[in-house]
Specification:
Largest sheet: 12 strands, antiparallel, barrel
Structural class: alpha+beta
CATH superfamily of the largest domain: monomeric porin ompg
Number of strands: 13
Number of domains: 2
Number of helices: 6
CATH topology of the largest domain: Porin
Order of helices and strands: HHHHHEEEEEEEEEEEEHE
CATH architecture of the largest domain: Beta Barrel
Oligomer: single chain
């Protein structure tokens, strides 16, 4: 019994030594080369063998401070990083210093309805740089070969926001009646949901005042077919009998035009327009034997360059 006890104790000690000292275990009972036990000990950091993956990884390590391109792509430089992440807080980072221009014949059309017909136009444009520009507007109509309403603007515009311009200048009314000159100040631009807005206030001779609001929207039915609704409202502070204009809300004009863009710069269209005069302006129209409201069909073209 004593001999067996000593043998048992010696075996237990050998097992403990093999777990605590892997090197000792390999020396005493090394399994055949390539066996699973050798690979397992290598993965656990025995220091005797390393798995093939570890050897391959160490072979590809580069010295510190050097970058190797992947698949032939050159290493990223400081200039590349600067170009990819520009300073977005800089003012007008994409603006240049060139002089540009834009001319839009928004409406050049022939209107017919209510027993009368005639031509009508609405044109605007600008020339200048990104912030400061000279703007012009002109619009009017004719009937039976005679000039009806006609006016022109000359304005200085300054960008006060990426989508808005502040404009100041003068407006000249040529017809009907005697000409009138107005000082103008307003704002124009693109409102949320892509509504184009023009709001202009005027001050004229003898303390006359005038406010005009205009908005339009372009609804893309297809890539080339565009539906354009438009509304214009005018109000005057004082009556001007010589021009048949009354105080208060003067008129509202609304139109709906459907155009087909043969090219972006040229688009024929068909449409319909409504006009309604109010209050003193309607009274002056009645006295002159004119209409206070009307509906007309329009055919024309929209051109810009």
């Amino acid at each position: 019994m004593i001999v067996l006890g000593r043998a048992t104790l010696a075996g237990a000690a050998a097992v403990l030594l093999s777990g605590a000292m892997p090197g000792y275990a390999q020396e005493t009972s090394a399994p055949p080369a390539g066996s699973a036990q050798v690979q397992s000990h290598g993965r656990h950091g025995s220091g005797q063998e390393s798995p093939p993956a570890a050897q391959d990884h160490s072979a590809h390590q580069q010295p510190a401070g050097k970058e190797e391109s992947a698949a032939g792509i050159p290493p990223i430089t400081d200039q590349d990083r600067a170009a990819a992440f520009p300073d977005l807080n800089a003012q007008h980072t994409v603006h240049d210093d060139g002089v540009h221009y834009y001319v839009l014949f928004d409406q050049v059309e022939w209107q017919a309805g209510d027993g009368a017909s005639g031509a009508s136009w609405d044109t605007n444009g600008w020339i200048g740089k990104d912030v400061n520009r000279f703007w012009f507007r002109t619009e009017g109509d004719s009937e039976a070969g005679e000039l009806g309403e006609a006016q022109a603007h000359a304005l200085y515009g300054r960008a006060i926001h990426p989508w808005w311009d502040l404009v100041v200048g003068v407006r000249e009314d040529f017809s009907p009646g005697p000409s009138r000159t107005w000082a103008a100040i307003g704002i124009q631009g693109l409102a949320p949901y892509w509504f184009e807005i023009e709001a202009t206030a005027y001050v004229g001779e003898s303390g006359r005042t005038h406010l005009r609001l205009e908005t339009e929207y372009e609804l893309l039915l297809t890539n080339r077919l565009v539906l354009q609704p438009q509304v214009e409202l005018e109000m005057y502070g004082k009556s001007d009998p010589a021009r048949r204009i009354g105080a208060g809300l003067s008129s509202i004009d609304a139109g709906l035009r459907l155009r087909y863009e043969i090219r972006r710069e040229f688009a024929p269209y068909v449409g319909v327009s409504w006009n309604r005069k109010f209050f003193g302006t309607a009274d002056f129209a009645d006295q002159a034997g004119g209409d206070t409201r009307g509906t007309r069909v329009a055919v024309g073209a929209r051109v810009w360059f």
